[in-house]
Amino acid sequence: MIDGLCVLKIHFWILAFNADDFVGNIFNLNIFFTLLVSLFGAWSFKERQWWLFVLCFLLLSFVNFDYAVTGLVLMLIFYLCRNKPWLGAVLYTLYYLPALNGNMDDPLALKLGEQAIGFEIFALLALPFIYLHTKTNLHISKWFFYAYYPMHLFLIFLIKNWEDFNLNILVREYAVQDLLAMLEIWNEVVEEGIAFPQEQPLDEQRGAQFFAAQSHSAVAEEQESGQLLGLYILHPNNEGRCGHICNASYAVSAASRGLHIGEKLVLDCLEQARLLGFGVLQFNAVVATNLHARHLYERLGFVQLGTIPAGFRMKDGHFEDICPYYHTL
Questions:
Q1: Residue 5: its pLDDT value, please?
Q2: Does the first or last residue of the chain, that is N or C, have fewer Cβ atoms within 10 Å of its Cβ?
Q3: What CA–CA distance (Å, rounded) separates 39 from 44?
Q4: How far is CA 18 from the centre of its chain?
């Protein structure tokens, strides 16, 4: 039963959280896979099959399971403290207390001044529902709970993408009046320091020269509001005998990510590159950790040329690999 639920519900999990890259996230294993491995882990602990317990622990630690090894830890707490609920509640609380000292770089953390609180702390809100007896004779079919998980994920998908369903996006050549909005989007990506090689933001004068110097600069505009959500630049990657190879860069505002703006920009860029007479579109430095971009490029037919170790210096100073890509036109 759990095996079937794992296979079925992973699709709903991807829809809810990574709908723009369904195939690329097929191995992000959801909570039911974690439950399955944790069950084996708890059984092996009970039966003292230590080799299997270690194997389950390593699987949850190093494979991309939802909740990772937390699933096994919590299952052991619930099992070992099944006759001492007060002890289970204490251990459960202690397990999540380190989240009070969260990471300021975590986008999901709750920021309170200079202090970050990890989102995991909200798991403590489930404590009363786990350990307090409801003393009710209400009977709810198990099938309701089997259906609840995929249905609530599908509802999340609809809520997250409701705006996308109603967006009317036009990708068009930029105009002078777009400059300030373009600079805001471009500089936002530069400041993030995880995708663009540039380290200095553009001011208005240099930005005007920069975008005007491209073979083609374009923006993604939401037509009803006139808001710019993203942009791209297109230019030769080389000259002379290699002048038929072009290069491009894409930027989407942080507030507009997840709305498939990047895909619209890349598709328009490919068409404009053909119209300008280029034969190949090449990306020189796609950061290996930029998985959403890489999955998008691969889905649209780009081919990875290899990997350059430690080719990109991240904002915090450590180095990541870069992956060149190309697409024939």
A1: 56
A2: N
A3: 8
A4: 7
